[in-house]
Amino acid sequence: MKVIRAKSAGFCWGVERAIGIARNHADAGKRNVYSDGPLIHNRQMMEKLEAEGIHEVGDYQSRGALALDSEGVLVVRAHGISPERREYLKSLGLEFRDATCPDVGIVAGKIRRMARNGYSTIIFGDHDHPEVIGLLGYTEGRGHPVESEADIDALPELGEKVCMVSQTTMFTDDFAKLSAYVRSKYPELVVFDTICGATKARQSDIEVLVREGAQAIVVIGGHHSANTRKLATLAEKSGLPTFHIETAAELDSGAFAGFERVGVTAGASTPDFLIDAVCEKLAAM
Length: 285
Ligand code: SF4
Fold this sequence. Notes:
Layout: E1 2-5, H1 13-26, E2 33-36, H2 43-51, E3 54-57, E4 73-76, H3 83-91, E5 95-98, H4 102-116, E6 120-124, H5 130-136, E7 143-146, H6 149-153, E8 162-166, H7 172-185, E9 190-191, H8 197-211, E10 216-220, H9 226-237, E11 242-245, E12 261-266, H10 272-283
Parallel strand pairs: 1-12, 2-3, 2-4, 4-5, 6-7, 6-8, 8-9, 10-11, 10-12
The structure holds iron/sulfur cluster.
Residues 12-15, 78, 101, 103-104, 168-169, 196, 198-199, 268 line the site of iron/sulfur cluster (SF4).
């Protein structure tokens, strides 16, 4: 079978950078590195990193006592954190390294500037997602996560100064629709399209796979990764049979009988070694 691999498949630059920072400090297992919540949403990669001395500690929102080696390094993952969380983590006294993706940092900067000018901020995103939780910390208490028109209808009256941003990994079409809906209620709304370039490329690459003649699409990534699940939903919307798998072991050759060309893409936290294994197995079918 011919395999068409999306150019954007696999780690985005923000995840790659965070892993690089953690690995540099782990120094091939000589030092303990701690990340506040999983460094990336991929079980296989987390197991690999754990073996290199990079540990996920606790729940990224908790303040419970953490048993950390005082010689270790605390790394903030690509999703970023709120200013309050930053202060708390720094108070733990370990060496502190911030691996927040610069694209998330730009969103935080825009929110902070607008909040200081008296704006309320509507964030299009998942209210449970660590990136959104971190960004809310920059809104000076005037932040509102929304995912739907119903959420927007339920907002309190926000006055005239309202701005809107997006979690960096949302669908561009959904953001355009929801921001238009918010503007119908707040005509002076200031909109910042903060979906990151890596996410946009990954979304538009689905169309490229369709144009290149893929008859089915395989999306690789953690079943619990929001980013990968969204990608699978987008692939389904293309009308092609879509298979969301975590590893090559989940590929069922019977399900691919009759396909000659298959497109492969992967979430931002899917390592190359998993993508390579899937492509090899598909090619051999
Ligand atoms: S998905 Fe975008 S914002 Fe998030 S880490 Fe990757 S490049 Fe950065």
